[in-house]
Amino acid sequence: MLAFLLIPLLAQAQDPSSKAQINDPAWIKLLNQVENSTWTAGHNERMNDMTFEDARVLLGTGLVHISEHLGETRADSHYAAIADPPASFDARSHWENLIHPIRNQAGCGSCWAFSASEVLSDRVAIATNKQSPVLSPEDMVACDTSDMGCHGGILPRAWHYLENTGIVTEQCFPYSSAYGQVPSCPSRCEDSESWSASKVKARSSYAINGVQNMMKEIMTHGPIQVAFKVYKSLMSYKSGVYSKRIWDFLPEGGHAVKIVGWGTENDVDYWIVANSWGTTWGEDGFFKIKRGSNECGIETMGPPYAGLPAVSEELFTV
Fold first, then answer.
1. Which residues are bridge partners to 65 per DSSP?
2. Where are the alpha helices (DSSP H) in the chain?
3. What's the CA gap between 278 and 90, in Å, rounded?
4. Burial of 94 by CB count in 10 Å (0-12 exposed, 13-18 middle, 19+ buried)?
5. CB within 8 Å of 56: residues ≥ 6 apart
6. Could you tell me the fold of the domain covering 46-315?
7. Is 94 part of the annotated catalytic residue set?
8. What average pLDDT does this structure show over 127-144?
9. pTM for the whole structure
């Protein structure tokens, strides 16, 4: 009888054109009725009054498989020379006060720009061993013509922009695309900085192939950017180690995020991920997702990408 009563709700929630509310208590109850689940669904303030259709605007990443970018990875010998990863690692505590806080992309499909700029911001701070300014995702949204602003982007293209052009600080070019309207690319800062002098570049960029290499990259140089398929159930994530529900067949879209570490909870390996939906979603803006089984394509579909910042060479070891 219970299954019979839930079928209409389940069908509604899986309809790509559904107007169902993400915070619908019946939907959240359904998500939490799965036996032996490793995660819990709940009400997220970030999703107040939002339907699944509304939330698709947040998913602005074109997914590309790592197999298409194997020529852009670092040499196997590079990772072979790095010690095996520990059982757990969290960049937030390992580099205390150097990892930048959770941000909010709001109503723009700029996740690709937020996560890329956040990774570069963190890596500049780590490389220089001091707090650094937040770098501007709006620079990428408005000025990176190889991507599509609020309509999406692709990780390798984003990193090519960071390497070839670089981005200014947030103070120079604040985020203004919260409602999906992208400004024209400026040539001067909104503060007293010089536009050209404010630019921060990546001096290299590369794809990262494989879970072990992803972990070694994070523990050596800092957070990395990844992308994955988002299913409806993720919208209601509250805590625990996420994996998609058995009825999650069709993804809502592709989403780019920043991995800051990993660990194990109740014998389930996970990644620690910084989202860009503000602090009123998930675990204060973060979530954990199953690690080692390519959950939702997170270990292959970005593809995972990063780069080294163009700061003084003597300040860090490649």
1. none
2. 2-14, 25-31, 52-55, 76-80, 91-94, 111-128, 137-143, 155-164, 195-198, 211-221
3. 20
4. middle
5. 252, 253
6. Cathepsin B; Chain A (3.90.70)
7. no
8. 97
9. 0.93
Q: Which two tokens stand for residue 214?
A: 């992803």
Residue 151 has pLDDT above 90, yes or no: yes
- Check: CB of residue 201 under 8 Å from CB of residue 310: yes
Mean pLDDT lowest among 2-16, 41-55, 251-265: 2-16
Nearest CA to 120 out of 221, 15, 235 is that of 221
Nearest to 298 by CA among 249, 239, 230: 230
User: Is 69 an active-site residue?
Assistant: no
Task: Give percent of the chain above pLDDT 70.
Answer: 92
Query: Residue 281 in contact with residue 275, Cβ under 8 Å?
Result: yes
Catalytic, 255? Answer yes
Q: Where are the domains of the chain?
A: 46-315
CA 50 to CA 155: how far, in whole Å? Answer: 27
Place of tokens 């010089």: 194
Q: If pLDDT is split at 50, 70 and 90, which confidence band does 312 have?
A: low
Residues found in the chain: 318
Residue 261 parent element (H or E): strand 253-265
Tokens for 157?
């293209």
Which one from 23, 44, 69, 111 is the annotated catalytic residue? 111
Is 11's pLDDT higher than 90? no
Torsion over CA of 229, 235, 236 and 238, rounded to 10 degrees? Answer: 80
CA 135 to chain centre: 15
Q: Are 134 and 124 in contact (CB under 8 A)?
A: no
- The one catalytic residue in 44, 160, 275, 296 is 275
